[in-house]
């Protein structure tokens, strides 16, 4: 699995379901199935013909299984237990446990009133939004952000996302309001109830 495709679900959803993981149908078999589908998507992306259209279905259970059994090496430090719920019309709800004590000492002070100074430890971060994609480009419209169940400004999520997505090429990290290029020749991702269809 390539790094770019492997990090796509993390960037799109791991930082962005309030249902416990035990409620999902997670299994090693489903995690293996998603591994095979990721490899298939990559191979198809390398071999795509301009006139062809290929569709790969990914279920919510496969994603949650992959997060449980395969994601440890891919997740940034301080993020654990990612979970996702896929709704129709592009709706996505994601939750992860974020260790703010890992983030706070390494981030610049917000100056003045800094909400992060009031919170610490491992807290659930829950995000709902709508993922829109077309012509190889996707955009996540974040609608609500909950920190330990309490609504917080989207700017706080932006700060976490920027911290966790920093690279030498992008020292300031990603911005949530920016569209991003889909990898492996993916044209769009159609979100249905409990599933997503990757269209190449």
Name the descriptors.
200 residues; alpha+beta; six-stranded antiparallel β-sheet; three-stranded antiparallel β-sheet
What is the residue-averaged pLDDT?
82
**Rg, Cα atoms, Å:** 17 Å
Query: For the terminal residues, how far apart are their CA atoms?
Result: 17 Å
Shape: globular
User: In the residues, how many domains can be counted?
Assistant: 1
Largest sheet: 6 strands, antiparallel
Unreliable spans are: 8-23
The structural class is: alpha+beta
DSSP summary, beta strand count: 9
Q: How helical, in percent, are the residues?
A: 25-40%
User: What pattern of helices and strands is seen along the backbone?
Assistant: HHEHEEHEEEHEEE
Number of helices: 5
Percent in strands: 25-35%
Summarize the structure.
By secondary structure, the protein is α+β, with helices and mostly antiparallel strands. It is built from five helices and nine strands; from the N terminus they run ααβαββαβββαβββ. The chain starts with a helix and ends with a strand.
């Amino acid at each position: 699995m390539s790094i770019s495709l492997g990090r796509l679900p993390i960037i799109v959803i791991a930082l962005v379901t309030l249902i416990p993981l035990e409620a999902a149908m997670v299994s090693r078999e489903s995690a293996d199935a998603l591994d095979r589908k990721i490899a298939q998507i990559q191979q198809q992306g390398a071999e795509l013909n301009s006139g062809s259209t290929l569709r790969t279905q990914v279920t919510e259970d496969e994603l949650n299984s992959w997060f449980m059994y395969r994601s440890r090496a891919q997740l940034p430090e301080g993020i654990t237990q990612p979970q996702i719920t896929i709704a129709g019309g592009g709706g996505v709800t994601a939750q992860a446990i974020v260790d703010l004590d890992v983030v706070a000492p390494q981030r610049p002070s917000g100056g003045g009133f800094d909400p992060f100074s009031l919170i610490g430890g491992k807290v659930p971060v829950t995000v709902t939004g709508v993922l829109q994609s077309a012509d190889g480009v996707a955009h996540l419209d974040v609608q609500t952000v909950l920190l330990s169940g309490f609504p917080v400004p989207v700017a706080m999520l932006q700060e976490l996302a920027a911290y966790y997505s920093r690279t030498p090429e992008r020292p300031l990290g990603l911005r949530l309001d920016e569209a991003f290029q889909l990898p492996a020749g993916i044209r769009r991702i159609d979100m249905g109830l409990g599933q997503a269809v990757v269209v190449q």
